[in-house]
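Lab channel / #folding
Pinned by the channel admin:
"Please post every new chain as: sequence first, then the structure tokens as a reply. Keep commentary short and put observations after the output so the thread stays searchable."

First post following the new format, from NK:
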Amino acid sequence: MSFFGSTISSLEKSLDYASVKNQTISNNIANADTPGYKAQSAVFKNVLQNEMGSTFQTKRTDSRHINFQPGSAQQSFQVVSNSNTTYNHNGNNVDIDKEMTELAKNQIYYQGLVDRLNGKFSSLQTVIKGGR
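Reply from TO:
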């Protein structure tokens, strides 16, 4: 029995993505002066395009629904390196200003997810206490 449907699962996957994104940004910042280091990023778009290109079979109640098989993707994001650019003379392509901006955006995103998760558990607590 699920109290929240798939909401908790979706929030969990989103928190996983935000954690991996934070880790890749931190690695980029830590290696900003490392010769030859290429910046990495956690991306969702490529995985979505790959999944949309494959065929799924599901029960659709409307012809406008997208074919989707829940649980088909093992991981909803990838970590990729950007090896096409070089910002520094030593072959490094980490743009520290961009990384700090991405870090701030990701922290706001993560905090929003945590707040939403807390809201779900607060609702459950209210129900358990009988609405008090």
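NK: The two ends are 24 Å apart (CA to CA).
TO: also worth noting, The first helix runs from residue 7 to 30.
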